[in-house]
Amino acid sequence: MARGTMVMVGTRKGLWVARSDEAREDWQVSGPHFAMEEVYSCLVDTRGGRPRLLAGASSTWLGPQVWRSDDLGATWTDTPGGAVAFPEDVDASVERVWQLAPGTEPGVVWAGTEPGAVFRSEDGGETFALQRGLWDHPHREQWGAGFGGQAFHTVLPHPSDPASVTVAISTGGVYQTSDGGESWEPRNAGIRAEFLPEGEQFPEFGQCVHKVTRHPARPERLYLQNHGGVYRSDDHAATWTSIAAGLPSDFGFPVVVHPHDPDTLYVFPLGEGRFPPDGRARVWRSQDAGATWAELGGSEAGALPDGFFVAVVRDAMCADDHAAPGLYVGARNGTVWGSSDAGETWRCVVADLPDVMVVRAAAIDL
Fold this sequence. Notes:
Blueprint: E1 3-11, E2 14-21, E3 28-33, E4 38-45, E5 52-59, E6 63-69, E7 96-102, E8 109-114, E9 117-121, E10 129-130, H1 132-135, E11 154-157, E12 165-169, E13 173-177, E14 185-186, E15 209-214, E16 222-226, E17 230-233, E18 241-242, E19 252-258, E20 261-269, E21 283-286, E22 294-296, E23 317-319, E24 327-330, E25 336-339, E26 347-350, E27 356-365
């Protein structure tokens, strides 16, 4: 069976699915799926046999839904009434499904929503149950919302410990459970909240964290892109250290770790105005856990664009898991670029879509 590549692109007006072979030079694109629905989260779940695609969509008329496909996007199934919903005794309603993440155990999928809550599925994403420990946390009612809403942008199940999950939300910060969601504690020591007054910029919680990631081979190490600041933790988020020196800007939304190297990570810096410094779309890579940085994307053999004055949001950059990994960047001008050599050279995967909110990719069997 041939090895191929699947890329899911969620936008403000639907989902597009792109497929290619392992070379990742030519793409077949289908869509829109769920036209006029906002798609903020996607998952290519390759656990088990045939991949299952999940998409967290939100309709103005019908509310949120987690769609699923077991035939690589040819057909889709919903859950009657919506897969993610608060129980009747909770006076709240789900507005968006910001995150879908595979759990440590077979069939387990985690979801993060707006308003700030985490849900757990045990049937591959068909139905979800609210995790009361975080919803009932005394800090939750003090979490604010960013310009784009209360973005629940990170859910990181521990790769070997089902009881451990790390989450992050704007503007609440990083929280972690070690008992399967019964209790949660803030894990923000060392993260600066630059928008607070002097002397109050390192609170217990309330940071505007934009994204957190880690590599499964080294789960105690995490990387974080903040609203001002790029950080690394080597003690499972107990403390954080700045690694922003050498970047043209410490503001941005995504942070992505190399699928085979826990010391290599990628960010997409944004300057004043929330577009790249000097309008040059560039990915920056560190191969030494943030000690030094190098600019990618300016190769004559295949470059990212100049004159680029739009943002790349928190879930619109990702990597696939091929042996020679690919990297993908989606922008708010509706274009997705792909690199089959980990960021050295780039080509357009698809263009002229609505605002790209999320990009997810994986190696699959065609």
